[in-house]
Design a protein that fits this description.
Layout lengths: L2 H16 L11 E11 L7 E8 L2 E5 L11 E7 L2 E7 L2 E12 L2
Antiparallel strand pairs: 1-2, 1-4, 2-3, 3-6, 4-5, 5-6
Length: about 100
């Protein structure tokens, strides 16, 4: 009978690992606009994924995409080092590694 309480306790401890962390809206003080998200499927071993996120007059380039981030939409954002996080839904965060920047025209 001790196995069941241990199993329940183990599941309760593991559940927060399944939930997306960092979803407090107060932590997202910036606004990022999704300028583009391009996925190019090739026959080569690597496919091309590029997302452009604009914050102010600076465009951040990431070599990845997030299907929850809609092109043309703006989302609460934050920058930590070389990473940008977008709060795209109440409990969903899209994370991008910054691979480059350019100024908008």
């Amino acid at each position: 009978m001790r196995v069941i309480p241990s199993l329940v306790l183990g599941l309760l401890i593991a559940v927060p690992a399944w939930a997306d962390k960092d979803t407090n809206p107060a932590d997202y003080q910036l606004t990022a606009h999704v300028n583009s998200a391009i996925f190019t499927h090739t026959t080569a071993p690597s496919n091309s994924r590029v997302t452009e996120l604009q914050i102010g007059n600076l465009i951040y380039i990431a070599n990845e995409i997030c299907k929850e981030a809609t092109v043309g939409a703006s989302y609460p954002a934050r920058i930590e080092g070389r990473k940008i996080s977008l709060l795209v839904a109440e409990n969903k965060v899209c994370r991008f590694r910054i691979d480059g920047t350019k100024e908008s025209h």
